[in-house]
């Protein structure tokens, strides 16, 4: 104990000394307080802990307060979270220090060992922090230190605030509970091996144990001074590095400071993170402490209740071992009396230990120590023995030597050269040489600075000298002056010779010219030579001057920095000859000059004379004028005088009198020449001075310099080193080693880099980097030209590239800096600014392959090689900014620099040049990518164009209609005849020519052409879209069964196998492409009909007894009113059902009609455009007895069957195709008048009477196609639009939602107009004026007028869009377009009708719904007298809302000009609907409050203009139709004569206009009339009414009635045609057909 | 019958669908058809066919052998749309449903002589993973609506396929009158074959000589 206290005393002294030094060095000492330097003993610690309280309380007071509040808040939160016991948790940490400080004075000695077991948590914290910290970070930046200091201070003050606060609260006795769990564990184990590791020992026990331990140690006699020291230090230093530091305690205070810095860094973890600062140590330590404390309390309680429990726990502890998480002190781990040894400190290599987390390590250590021979696991440094890195560098797998021999040869590894992808060299533009690999050798030999910031003044001069000398040498090498002198002499001789030979006489003009040329040449050469000589001279002089300056500088500074030494070698010359030569030279020059001057003078004299002459003439004229004027002047008025004087003004300024030229001064010439000679040449006899610069001088060594600044400079130079980065195409490819800058400012690299290049060489740049100390900066960049393809191998000379940097460097020492004004004069004048510059010597060449050839890509492959250097690329640097306006210069420059015309960067210049078309630059006309285009032109373009076969192929490829499916294009040109193109050419050529043959009407022909054009343009537009595919077009895929489908399937299982009312199942759809003729059948299931017209019983007049009797008897017998059957005709195939009886027949028969597509083309597009219609005609089968055959004596009765047409339904194939089936009851189109039949029912029941309100017959049909064809998809192209994006998006969303909720209700918001643009639907609705004539027709009867307007609309022919535009897209034309085209779909009719109704003041809406048979269609809804009427715009029929036979089946949405409403009611049928659109739960509006109507303007015109009805044209058309129909009738009856009853025809003709006027309703009147007129004929006939579009439909309609099929021998026919014109060329066609049989 | 001035050339394809290499599947059969351009017409032979179902042998060879003969003659005026053989392989899956095991196509070789082609096969992939499962479960894998799409390039970008097995086909090709019409499809390595450019330019020669 005594010894230990001795040691403690010693330590304290040391510590104090240290403390003092610390205080001296660092005024802010507090850091040490919070980071209790763990290398000190706990005494030290106590002091340090105390100190902050003394010294730091005051300055940190304010901060403390704020932090205290924070802290409390946080603590409260923490406390609330944990159990109430946790009160102590935050507290316990600090009071230890508090206690230490308080007890320091009194209890210090006694508590030595006690305290040792209770190191303050600060220490603990530092330990844990230390563990977190990577041990390698020794070097600390001062900035980090500063930052840490600040942080530490903050953290410390926080801690202090807490400390202060808690100190008052906590009772001192509680503080005893505080202990380091780590030490405690240790002591527990040693003192009480049975109960070790359990932190439940009471304080008293532990203290006792500790004392015992101390005693034990003493008893052992071990505690030497050394051991005690170890004991105290190592208790708190589980980290060996701390111990390491302990040993270094005696270091200087400076070192101490460094260490502290290190500690601060180690503190960084907890300090940097506030949570960790407060939380982490609190939690880790606090938990343990808390545990201990609580158990302590707990134990005390237990002891009262269960006496044996402690023992039980001890017993448990004897069995169980829970290794502590806390670290183990080093001395426990080591053998007794051993100091930890750190091999690292002894200079031995200790590898990095594998990373193990501290807690794991601690657990392991504790566990090992528990074992008997635990200590052997620890190394000398007290740590677990560990290999540096468990992963071995080399593979430890034993080599398979024995396998080598008997290895299957197939398994041997075969080396194959890696193959380069052939695409790889595409980078090198073009694939001319697939095997070529290109190598660029960049040889960086070194660099010399011509100026460097570290240059001393002497260096500056030296480098200048060297430069001048270089210049001198290069001049010397070229020796221009000598060369020019020779040339001059030669010229002179030649001139002299000429003159001598000819003797100055009889010179031919040519000779004279030559002489003058020669003399001119002499003159210019002489001038050149003079200037060169002058330059030489100046250069020499400069060299000497610089050398002198250098010498004076050296003398001045008394040392030498540069090795330069200039010596001037004299070469003596023979003075006499030299003088002679010189004199001769001067004389010759003088003579020449004289001659020249003479010549010049003569010239000037001539000029003068001429001018003088002119002047004289002018003068004379002036005089004459003046005289004249003087004469006149008296007579003239003043004004004229003025005029004259005005005109005199300019006249006065005539040519001035020229002065005679001066005579040349011959004498002065000689003087001048001599002067010049003395200036630019050496004096005769003077020795020739040849400067020789050598670098052999000695440089004064640094020690001898004497100048401190110079030494600093040299040191700086020595620090610098340089390296060079090599950039290839702006990418760094390699860099040289860093080489030091030599004292001569030369750097030698001498490295050659072989670049294997893949990309085209565009630029090779070398970047010079300078490193000084830790910094590295880019000095300069040198662009090296890409060598030509021939430049390869070692023969390439090293070139020098100058570089410079505008970096500004200012140095303190002798170095002159860079970009800093520098003066060599004493007075500081003549300042120079030098920039860092130098020369980089390097060479770039192509590598040489094995065969000796350069590994260079061919010339064409690296266009960049053409521009040699960046300077030439820049027009401004090349020709100057002013030159940019000079087209010629630019052109020249472009030519020179060989601008790549294909480089987009140069596009503008190229364009400019092209515009200027100076002719100097010829930009290639081809694009580089198609270089070989020329080669592939095996025939000229003209030939190709004229090739018919090629044309045919082209047209087919373009899918021109005529050639789309052309098979077998002939192989040979001659087999392709011009005939093939005739139709096409005709079509193309005669596109504009109106062909009236087919159309009978010029307007309609035009319209047809127009439609054709639109169709073509649209088809072209859709062609692309058609080539877009969806997955469903290609791949057949089962849909994922949804829950609903699964449920349905389950439900289906329960269905009866043969239900009583089977439902039609969806059939498998067949794509049209695999079909051929005969595969497709049209199925028509004729179910029943209602209200078929019945025969009029007494059809003939009563007088015709026989017929009447027969009929009467017939009537009486069988009660047969009518025997109807249905005949379906499609594509000229006619099938009929059996005959049923009665006005409400039921057939229930299925008819199969074959279908063949036009041209055998079963593509969807072709099928869509099939214009054929299915005619379903209802006939009455009438049996006539032709009389009894006399021979059979009444045994056989001859009858003749006749069928009388009753009505028809006409369904276009396209409708069936697009809808895939038509199922419903259709209204039969019955003629207005049916001769011999009546629609009147034998009304015998109230119900029947009600039904008969709906005039006309109805037929229930089911039509479909077998197999089911996939209808053509709508074009999935998004059309461009002028609508607002938002509106379009909303429309799309509205439609999508609508189709989701009610998939069977059509909803249309946006439609496509004729231009193919998307237009919002409400834009189509706008009140438009109907033709005035129609309104005038019934001025008083609104209802009639409405009907007429509807009729007018219905008379506009209907043409489905599907048919006209084979892509199945619905195009909406505006009303004026519709009226111009006179063809449109249902929606155009509906829109027009709706607009008419609106303008007539009705409330009208457009209904988008499904109808029979059209499918999705458009109807018009009007509100009249609180009754809703539904109008079919195509038939002009109107239905009440509750009409059973209304063809409109369901209503999707309603549209007016303001809004679109979607039907969200339960049922879509109009009968069940409420048309109150104001109810949002019934009709969902598109524009609502959330999305208001943006005020869409209408696409319709403001007003419709109508052409007046063309009666003349109508009459003409009428005649033509009649003629054609008659011809057709005869054609259809090839075997029978066709007789026409003229009388009947003319009668019928009279009826037709009446029918037209009555709208086909009032037809009964004329029947009687007719009957009376044609009394003796049995007549059956009817008027057909059609809107007029073409003749063909009329013919078809007539054919379908089958009137021509009456084969009675004495039949006569009557045919009348009436065409009624309406405005705007809308024509109503009536055809009255009748067959008359004479009875 | 020697035509001096032919207007069509003939291409006779003899050969056989030898077999397939489907390591995973067994009991497969194969359907084949030809796809050709507008200017082609088969003059004799079967354009489409279906092979027998074949099982893997128990021997070491795990190839499926069909040895199904092909014999078709085409006439044409234009090499554009040169016939392609489209094969599609079908077989039962785990549940015995007949599912497609691969589609593939190859051009009929251009040059006369014997050729062997190994056609890599692929099948369309279901769009969704769930669909993959249901299609596996129900035995209704996605199929091409028209197997001929594998011989065309248009619209293929919308499909996703998985490769699956190989089918080996051998061809013996005979052509007639192709040279006379100026189409030289001879092997390119023969020494006297003129280059492509001159071959076109010699197109006129046959006419001039006759």
From TrEMBL, chain A:
| UniProt biased composition (Basic and acidic residues) | 83-92, 144-161, 177-201
Question: What residue range is the signal peptide?
Answer: none
Give me the Gene Ontology terms describing cellular component: ciliary transition zone
Q: Which domain of life is it from?
A: Eukaryota
Share an example GO biological-process annotation for this protein. non-motile cilium assembly
Location of the region described as Disordered in the Swiss-Prot/TrEMBL record: 21-207, 231-281, 626-665
What residues does the C2 domain cover?
A: 1064-1226
- Show the ranges annotated as biased composition (Acidic residues): 254-277, 636-651
- Family matches, as Pfam families: CC2D2AN-C2, CEP76_C, CEPT76_peptidase, DUF5523
| Extent of Polar residues compositional bias | 114-143
Skewed-composition ranges (Basic residues): 65-77
Q: Under what name is this protein listed?
A: C2 domain-containing protein
Q: Which organism is it from?
A: Eleginops maclovinus
From TrEMBL, chain B:
Q: Where are the membrane-spanning stretches?
A: none
Task: Name a single GO cellular component.
Answer: MKS complex
Compositional bias (Low complexity) spans? 187-202
Q: Does the keyword tRNA-binding apply?
A: no
User: Where is it localised?
Assistant: Cytoplasm, Cytoskeleton, Cilium basal body
Q: Where is this region: Disordered?
A: 185-210
Q: Which UniProt keywords apply?
A: Cell projection, Cilium biogenesis/degradation, Cytoplasm, Cytoskeleton
Q: What does this protein do?
A: Component of the tectonic-like complex, a complex localized at the transition zone of primary cilia and acting as a barrier that prevents diffusion of transmembrane proteins between the cilia and plasma membranes. Required for ciliogenesis and sonic hedgehog/SHH signaling.
The name this protein goes by in its record: B9 domain-containing protein 1
* Organism (species): Eleginops maclovinus (Patagonian blennie)
């Amino acid at each position: 104990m005594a010894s230990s206290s001795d040691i403690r005393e010693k330590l304290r002294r040391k510590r104090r000394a240290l403390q003092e030094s610390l205080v001296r060095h660092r005024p802010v000492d507090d850091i040490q307080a919070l980071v209790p330097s763990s290398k000190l003993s706990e005494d030290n610690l106590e002091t340090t802990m105390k100190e902050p309280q003394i010294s730091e309380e005051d300055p940190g007071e304010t901060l403390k307060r704020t932090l205290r509040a924070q802290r409390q808040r946080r603590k409260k939160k923490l406390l609330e979270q944990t159990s109430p016991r946790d009160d102590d948790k935050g507290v316990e940490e600090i009071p230890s220090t508090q206690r230490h400080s308080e007890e320091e004075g009194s209890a210090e000695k006694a508590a030595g060992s006690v305290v040792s077991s209770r190191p303050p948590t600060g220490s603990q914290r530092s330990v844990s922090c230390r563990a977190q910290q990577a041990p390698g970070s020794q070097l600390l930046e001062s900035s980090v230190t500063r930052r840490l200091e600040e942080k530490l201070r903050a953290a410390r003050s926080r801690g202090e605030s807490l400390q202060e606060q808690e100190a008052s609260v906590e009772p001192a006795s509680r503080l005893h509970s505080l202990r380091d769990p780590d030490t405690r564990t240790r002591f527990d184990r040693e003192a009480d091996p049975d109960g070790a590791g359990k932190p439940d020992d009471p304080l008293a026990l532990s203290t006792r144990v500790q004392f015992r331990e101390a005693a034990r140690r003493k008893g052992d006699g071990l505690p030497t001074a050394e051991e005690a020291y170890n004991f105290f230090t190592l208790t708190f230093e589980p980290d060996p590095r701390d111990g390491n530091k302990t040993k270094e305690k005696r270091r200087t205070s400076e070192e101490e400071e460094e260490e502290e810095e290190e500690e601060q860094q180690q503190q960084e973890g907890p300090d940097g993170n506030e949570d960790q600062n407060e939380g982490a140590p609190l939690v880790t330590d606090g938990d343990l402490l808390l545990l201990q404390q609580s158990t302590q309390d707990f134990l005390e309680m237990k002891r009262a209740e269960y006496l044996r429990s402690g023992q039980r726990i001890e017993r448990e502890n004897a069995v169980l071992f829970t290794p502590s998480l806390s670290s183990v002190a080093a001395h426990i781990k080591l053998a007794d009396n051993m100091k930890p040894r750190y091999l690292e400190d002894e200079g031995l290599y200790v590898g990095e230990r594998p990373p193990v987390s501290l807690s794991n390590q601690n657990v392991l250590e504790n566990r090992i120590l528990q074992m008997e021979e635990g200590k052997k696991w620890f190394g000398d440094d007290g740590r677990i023995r560990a290999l540096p890195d468990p992963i071995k560098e080399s593979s430890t797998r034993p080599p398979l030597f024995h396998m080598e021999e008997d290895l299957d040869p197939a398994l041997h590894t075969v080396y194959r050269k890696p193959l380069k992808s052939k695409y790889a060299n595409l980078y090198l533009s073009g694939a001319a040489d697939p095997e070529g690999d290109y190598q660029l050798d960049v040889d960086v030999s070194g660099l010399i600075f011509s100026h460097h910031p570290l240059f001393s003044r002497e260096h500056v001069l030296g480098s200048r000298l060297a430069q001048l000398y270089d210049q001198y040498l290069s001049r010397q090498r070229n020796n221009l002056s000598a060369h020019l002198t020779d040339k001059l002499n030669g010229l002179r001789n030649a001139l002299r010779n000429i003159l001598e030979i000819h003797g100055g006489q009889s010179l031919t003009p040519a000779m004279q010219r030559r002489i003058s040329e020669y003399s001119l040449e002499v003159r210019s050469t002489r001038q050149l030579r003079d200037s060169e000589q002058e330059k030489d001279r100046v250069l020499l002089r400069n060299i000497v001057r610089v050398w002198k300056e250098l010498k004076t500088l050296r003398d001045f500074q008394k040392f030498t920095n540069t090795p330069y030494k200039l010596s001037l070698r004299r070469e003596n010359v023979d003075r006499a000859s030299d003088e002679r030569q010189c004199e001769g030279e001067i004389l010759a020059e003088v003579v020449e000059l004289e001659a020249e001057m003479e010549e010049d003078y003569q010239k000037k004299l001539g000029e003068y004379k001429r001018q003088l002459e002119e002047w004289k003439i002018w003068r004379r004229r002036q005089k004459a004028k003046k005289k004249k004027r003087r004469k006149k002047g008296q007579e003239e008025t003043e004004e004229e005088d003025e005029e004259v004087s005005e005109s005199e003004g300019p006249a006065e300024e005539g040519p001035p009198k020229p002065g005679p030229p001066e005579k040349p001064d011959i004498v002065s010439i000689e003087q001048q020449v001599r002067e010049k000679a003395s200036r630019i040449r050496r004096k005769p006899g003077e020795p020739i001075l040849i400067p020789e610069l050598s670098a052999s001088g000695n440089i004064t060594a640094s020690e001898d310099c004497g100048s401190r600044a110079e030494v600093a400079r040299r040191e700086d130079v020595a620090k610098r080193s340089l390296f060079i980065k090599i950039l290839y195409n702006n990418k760094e490819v390699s860099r040289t080693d860093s080489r030091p800058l030599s004292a001569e400012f030369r750097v030698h690299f001498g490295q050659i880099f072989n670049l294997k290049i893949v990309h085209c060489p565009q630029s090779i740049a070398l970047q010079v980097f300078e490193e000084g100390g830790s910094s590295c900066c880019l000095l300069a960049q040198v662009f090296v030209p890409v060598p030509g393809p021939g430049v390869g191998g070692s023969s390439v000379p090293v070139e020098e590239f100058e570089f410079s940097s505008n970096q500004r460097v200012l140095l303190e020492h002798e170095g002159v800096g860079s970009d800093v004004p520098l003066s060599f004069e004493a007075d500081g004048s003549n300042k120079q600014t030098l920039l860092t510059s130098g020369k980089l010597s390097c060479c770039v060449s192509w590598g040489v392959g094995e065969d000796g050839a350069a590994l260079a890509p061919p010339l064409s492959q690296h266009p960049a090689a053409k521009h040699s250097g960046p300077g030439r690329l820049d027009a401004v640097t090349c020709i100057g900014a002013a030159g940019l306006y000079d087209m010629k210069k630019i052109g020249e420059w472009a030519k020179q620099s060989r601008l790549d015309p294909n480089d987009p960067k140069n596009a503008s210049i190229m364009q400019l040049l092209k515009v200027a078309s100076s002719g100097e630059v010829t930009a290639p006309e081809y694009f580089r990518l198609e270089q070989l285009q020329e080669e592939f032109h095996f025939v000229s373009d003209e030939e190709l164009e004229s090739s018919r076969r090629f044309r045919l192929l082209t047209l087919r490829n373009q899918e021109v209609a005529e050639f789309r499916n052309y098979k077998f294009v002939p192989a040979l040109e001659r087999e392709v005849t011009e005939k093939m193109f005739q139709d096409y050419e005709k079509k193309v050529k005669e596109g504009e020519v109106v062909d009236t043959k087919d159309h009978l009407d010029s307007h309609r022909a035009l319209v047809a052409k127009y439609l054709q054009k639109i169709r073509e343009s649209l088809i072209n537009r859709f062609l692309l879209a058609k080539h877009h595919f969806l997955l469903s077009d290609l791949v057949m895929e089962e849909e994922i069964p949804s829950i609903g489908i699964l449920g349905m399937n389950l439900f289906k299982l329960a269905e009866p196998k043969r239900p009583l009312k089977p439902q039609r199942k969806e059939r498998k759809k067949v794509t049209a492409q695999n079909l051929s003729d005969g595969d497709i059948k049209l199925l028509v299931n004729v179910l029943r009909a209602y209200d078929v017209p019945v025969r009029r019983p007494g059809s003939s007049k009563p007088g015709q007894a026989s017929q009447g009797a027969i009929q009467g008897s017939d009537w009486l017998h069988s009660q047969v009113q009518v025997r109807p059957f249905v005949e379906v005709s499609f594509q000229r195939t006619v099938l009929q059902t059996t005959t049923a009886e009665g006005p409400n027949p039921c057939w229930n028969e299925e008819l199969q009609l074959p279908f063949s597509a036009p041209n055998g083309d079963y593509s969807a597009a072709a099928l869509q455009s099939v214009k054929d219609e299915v005619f379903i005609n209802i006939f009455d089968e009438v049996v006539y007895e032709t009389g009894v055959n006399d021979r059979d004596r009444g045994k056989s009765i001859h009858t003749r069957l006749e069928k009388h047409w009753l009505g028809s339904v006409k369904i276009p194939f396209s409708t069936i195709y697009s809808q895939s089936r038509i199922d419903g009851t259709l209204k039969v189109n019955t003629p207005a008048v049916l001769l011999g039949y009546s629609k009147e029912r034998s009304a015998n029941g109230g119900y029947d009477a009600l039904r008969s309100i709906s005039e006309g017959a109805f037929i229930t049909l089911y039509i479909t196609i077998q197999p089911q064809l996939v209808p053509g998809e709508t074009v999935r192209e998004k059309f461009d639009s002028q609508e607002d994006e938002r509106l379009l998006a909303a429309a799309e969303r509205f439609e999508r939602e609508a189709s989701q909720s009610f998939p069977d209700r059509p909803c249309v918001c946006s439609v496509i107009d004729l231009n193919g643009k998307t237009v919002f639907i409400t834009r189509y609705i706008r009140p438009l004026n109907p033709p005035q004539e129609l309104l005038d027709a019934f001025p008083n009867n609104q209802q009639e007028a409405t009907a007429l307007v509807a009729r007018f609309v219905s008379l506009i022919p209907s043409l489905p869009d599907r048919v006209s535009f084979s892509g199945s897209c619905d195009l909406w034309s505006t009303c004026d377009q519709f009226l111009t085209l006179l063809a449109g779909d249902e929606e155009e009719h509906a829109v027009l009708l709706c607009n008419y109704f609106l303008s007539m003041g009705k409330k009208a809406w457009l209904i988008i719904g499904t109808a029979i048979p059209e499918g999705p269609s458009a109807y018009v809804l009007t509100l009249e007298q609180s009754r809703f009427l539904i109008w079919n715009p195509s038939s002009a029929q109107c239905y009440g809302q509750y009409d059973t036979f209304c063809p409109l089946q369901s209503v999707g949405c309603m549209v007016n000009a303001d809004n679109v409403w979607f039907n969200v009611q339960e049922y879509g049928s109009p009968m069940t609907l409420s048309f109150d659109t104001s109810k949002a739960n019934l009709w969902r509006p598109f524009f609502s409050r959330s999305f208001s109507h943006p005020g869409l303007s209408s696409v319709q015109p403001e007003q419709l203009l109508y052409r007046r009805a063309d009666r003349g044209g109508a009459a003409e058309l009428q005649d033509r139709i009649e003629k054609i129909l008659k011809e057709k009738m005869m054609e259809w009856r090839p075997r029978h004569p066709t007789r026409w009853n003229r009388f009947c025809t003319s009668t019928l003709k009279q009826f037709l206009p009446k029918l037209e006027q009555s709208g086909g309703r009032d037809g009964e009147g004329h029947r009687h009339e007719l009957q009376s007129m044609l009394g003796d004929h049995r007549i059956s006939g009817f008027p057909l009414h059609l809107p007029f579009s073409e003749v063909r439909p009329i013919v078809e309609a007539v054919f379908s009635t089958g009137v021509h099929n009456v084969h009675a021998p004495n039949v006569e026919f009557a045919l009348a045609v009436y065409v009624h014109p309406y405005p705007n060329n809308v024509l109503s066609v009536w055809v009255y057909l009748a067959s008359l049989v004479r009875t | 019958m020697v035509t001096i001035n032919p207007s069509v050339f003939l291409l006779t394809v003899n050969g056989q669908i030898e077999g397939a290499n489907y390591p995973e599947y067994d009991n497969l059969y194969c359907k084949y058809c030809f796809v050709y351009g507008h200017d082609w017409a088969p003059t004799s032979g079967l354009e489409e066919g279906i092979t027998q179902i074949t099982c893997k042998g128990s021997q070491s060879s795990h190839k499926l052998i069909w040895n199904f003969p092909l014999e078709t003659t085409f006439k044409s005026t234009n090499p554009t749309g040169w016939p392609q053989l489209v094969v599609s392989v079908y077989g039962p899956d785990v549940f015995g449903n007949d599912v497609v095991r691969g589609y593939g196509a190859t051009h009929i070789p251009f040059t006369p002589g014997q050729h062997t082609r190994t056609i890599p096969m692929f099948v369309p992939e279901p769009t969704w993973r769930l669909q993959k499962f249901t299609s596996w479960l129900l035995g209704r894998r996605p199929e091409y609506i028209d197997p001929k799409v594998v011989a065309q390039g248009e619209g293929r970008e919308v499909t996703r396929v998985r490769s699956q097995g190989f089918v080996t086909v051998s061809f013996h090709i005979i052509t007639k009158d192709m040279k006379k019409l100026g189409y030289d499809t001879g092997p390119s390595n023969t020494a006297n074959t003129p280059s492509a450019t001159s071959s076109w330019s010699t197109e006129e020669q046959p006419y001039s000589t006759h």
